[in-house]
Amino acid sequence: MGVSEEAHNVRVLGSGDQTVVLAHGFGTDQSVWKHLVPHLVEEYRVVLYDNMGSGTTNPDYFDFERYSTLEGYAHDVIAILEELEVRNCIYVGHSVSAMIGVVASITRPDLFKKLVAISASPRYLNDPNYFGGFEQDELLQLFEAMKSNFKAWCSGFAPLAVGGDMESVAVQEFSRTLFNMRPDIALSVAQTIFYSDMRPFLGHVTVPCHIIQSMKDLAVPVVVSEYLHQNVGGESIVEVMSTEGHLPQLSSPDVVIPVLVRHIRYDIAV
């Protein structure tokens, strides 16, 4: 196993000719794909890994400077694909990992066949001509809450993000992975994500993009999916699902998994 594979807890399942890479979002780890993986392993080679900073990775490996931009994470993705000798993969990115995939695909388009983006946003802060869903003071309050009592913040944030009460299995699962993060790392990652502006990158994307979004999402207004569709450089398609929450693959698998499998299997032109 290579250095990147070991650091990111890389797992390779299945043995198909086509490789599907599953990349998780903030506060989760590769376990967020547990409902999807069984539907892929018969047909595809499936690559799972953990983003640096997630609770399952070694916090000593987290470089605060490297991961102050999404480019640091994109270099990790490229390193993993190179170590596994993957070319032309189908990259499924949730939340921030969708934008990480955007950056990686611009740097090395040969490694990607297409991007499947779930709950993706190029910018969370509102601008005069752009609605990302958050004002500056809201983000400052969020970061202050994380700093003052991380456990209490996790308990409040998890049901809001997932779109359910604390008794739901999906909320409990997200609460667990979120709380597994080291608090200072979680704060740094959240600041990197919420202050990022990936809009200038979108026009440089050349691989096809499948944009999948919940109808109601605390973190990503549904209009953002249309913004992505209009601004990515390559071919794109949007599907808005009748689901709620930022982690629909965890909270509404019966609806979401068939949608994801369809977008993984079929290209836009079909």
What does this structure look like?
- The chain has a single domain, classed as Alpha/Beta hydrolase fold, catalytic domain (Rossmann fold).
- Helix 4 crosses helix 5.
- It is of the alpha/beta class and 270 residues long.
- A 7-stranded mixed β-sheet has the order 1-3-2-4-5-6-7, sandwiched between helices.
- The chain is 41% helix and 16% strand.
- Keywords: Hydrolase.
- It comes from Penstemon smallii.
- This is AB hydrolase-1 domain-containing protein.
- Belongs to the AB hydrolase superfamily.
Parts with pLDDT < 50 across at least 5 consecutive residues: none
Shape: globular
Mean pLDDT: 95
- State the name of the first-level CATH class: Alpha Beta
Run of helices and strands: HEEEHEHEHHHHHEHEHH
CATH architecture: 3-Layer(aba) Sandwich
Give the termini separation. Answer: 37 Å
Q: What is CATH's topology name?
A: Rossmann fold
Give the number of domains: 1
The CATH superfamily is known as Alpha/Beta hydrolase fold, catalytic domain
- Widest beta sheet: strand line-up: 1-3-2-4-5-6-7
Question: What is the count of helical runs?
Answer: 11
Beta strands, count: 7
Give the helix proportion (percent range): 40-55%
Quick tags:
alpha/beta, globular, single chain, 7 strands, Rossmann fold, 270 residues, seven-stranded mixed beta sheet
